[in-house]
Design brief:
Layout: E1 2-5, E2 9-11, H1 15-23, H2 29-35, E3 42-47, E4 50-55, E5 59-66, E6 73-79, E7 85-94, E8 97-106, H3 113-133, H4 136-139
Antiparallel strand pairs: 1-8, 2-8, 3-4, 4-5, 5-6, 6-7, 7-8
Length: about 140
C-alpha cells in the first residue's frame, strides 16, 4: 500500500462546518449543475455519501464515504478504480478556521509506484491549493 500526502493547509471555515460539508457531498450538486461545463471532469455527480465521476480510460469511478473510528478523519473508498484507492481527509479545529491535510492510499504494485507518485502528489497539491483559497461562506451563501 502506497500513501501519498498533501501539504497541510488551512481552510477559512470552522472544522464542524467543513466536516458537515465533506460528509455530505450532495450539498455540492447545485454547483456542479451551474458550473458543470467549466469543470475538467465529465459526469460528476454527488450523493449524500459519495461522489461519482467519469474518468479517462477507466470509465465511471465512485468514491463512497466509509465510517472511521478516528475523530477528524473522513475516508472515501474508491469503487470501480483500477486499483484499490482510498481518499482520507484530516481535519483539525483551528479557531474559526480548519487545519487540513489530504492523503491517498493506493494498493499498487511496487514497480508502478514511480509512475503513479507524481500524478498523485500533483493532484493532491492542486486539491489543497483549491480548498485553501475557497470562500466557503460565499459558496454556501452563509
Amino acid at each position: 500500500m502506497q500513501t501519498y500526502t498533501s501539504r497541510a493547509f488551512t481552510m477559512s471555515k470552522d472544522a464542524q462546518s467543513i466536516e458537515g460539508m465533506v460528509k455530505n457531498p450532495a450539498l455540492l450538486q447545485p454547483y456542479v449543475e451551474k458550473f458543470g461545463d467549466k469543470l475538467p471532469v465529465k459526469n460528476l455527480s454527488f450523493t449524500e455519501d459519495g461522489v461519482s465521476v467519469e474518468a479517462p480510460i477507466v470509465g465511471n469511478v465512485t468514491f463512497t464515504r466509509v465510517d472511521t473510528d478516528t475523530p477528524g478523519v473522513i475516508k472515501y473508498q474508491g469503487k470501480g478504480t483500477p486499483v484499490p484507492l482510498a481518499l482520507n481527509i484530516f481535519l483539525k479545529p483551528d479557531g474559526d478556521k480548519t487545519s487540513a491535510q489530504l492523503s491517498l492510499d493506493a494498493d499498487i504494485p511496487a514497480f508502478m509506484g514511480g509512475m503513479i507518485e507524481g500524478k498523485a502528489k500533483s493532484g493532491l497539491a492542486k486539491a489543497a491549493d483549491f480548498l485553501e483559497v475557497l470562500d466557503f461562506d460565499r459558496l454556501f451563501k452563509k
